[in-house]
Amino acid sequence: MENAATPLEEIRQRMAYAARIASREPEEVALIAVSKTHPPESIAPLLEQGQRIFGENRVQEAAAKWPALREQWPDAELHLIGQLQSNKADEAVALFDCIHSLDRSSLVAALARAMDKAGRRIACFVQVNIGAEPQKGGCAIADLPALLAEARGAGIPLAGLMCVPPLDVEPAPYFALLEKLAADNGLAGLSMGMSGDFETAIMLGATHVRVGSALFGERAAG
Ligand SMILES: *Cc1c(COP(=O)(O)O)cnc(C)c1O
Q: What are the beta bridge partners of residue 33?
């Protein structure tokens, strides 16, 4: 009997298929394995299968899990995908290779200071509150040009734009809007698409998809 494909192989195949439909090369799209809430024992098998980019949404949790994993896999790349408080900027710059949640002026200042202090510049995606949802993080669309100018002025390397569309509605229009905002502002990277919609995101230009539950199984509630 043949071995069943692992979840990682299956996601990679689905990503490649979506890229080809959109006349894109599969290599243009990076898979971020979102390992939040999952213990090192669940993360190690993905590292063993060759996955190298991981996403965590909390600084504290990542600081507890990743130093040991990185000793064994020094080329693992860690991305912060959750909201960041300014007082954790130093820790975030030391721990992460990329931040997807730059969304306000005070955080631009805190990250610029932290990067200067550390002598280390890490790429940031600016998160856009694409559905204008009051409870969600992300910069308002109207404030985006000013925030980008500020980040550029502060010497923060900008990777692109990131969004989390509203739940339970068709995400495609939001992905298309984020793609247009990135193009209008001269940005190449698009961090969009999760377990339920990464293929749609890839067809609409995603360069980074953030996939958690489809790789690791459902997270425990809470
Ligand atoms: C948890 C999370 C994901 C992954 O979500 P899944 O639906 O489990 O794939 C992606 N992006 C962000 C910002 C997240 O918090």
A: 54, 211
Whether 200 contacts 172, CB under 8 Å: yes
Angle separating helix axes 59-72 and 40-48, nearest 10 degrees: 40
SS3 66: helix
Tokens 């980040």, located at residue: 151
- Tell me the per-residue pLDDT of 46-72, one tens digit each, with 9 for 90 and over: 999 999 999 999 999 999 999 999 999
83 in contact with ligand 1, CB cutoff 6 A: no
The reported pTM is 0.96
pLDDT tens profile 105-142: 999 999 999 999 999 999 999 999 999 999 999 999 99
CA of 23 to the centre of ligand 1 (A): 26
Residue to substitute in 14, 164, 210, 213 for testing ligand 1 pocket (most ligand atoms within 8 angstroms of CB): 210
Cα(127)–Cα(104) distance, integer angstroms: 9
Which ligand 1 atom is nearest residue 34's CA? 4
C-beta separation of 58 from 47 below 8 A: no
Helices (H), the chain: 7-21, 40-48, 59-72, 89-95, 105-118, 144-153, 172-184, 198-203, 213-216
- Domains of the chain plus CATH, in order, are 7-216 (3.20.20.10)
Neighbours of 141 (CB within 10 A): 14
Does the CB atom of residue 210 touch ligand 1 within 6 A? yes
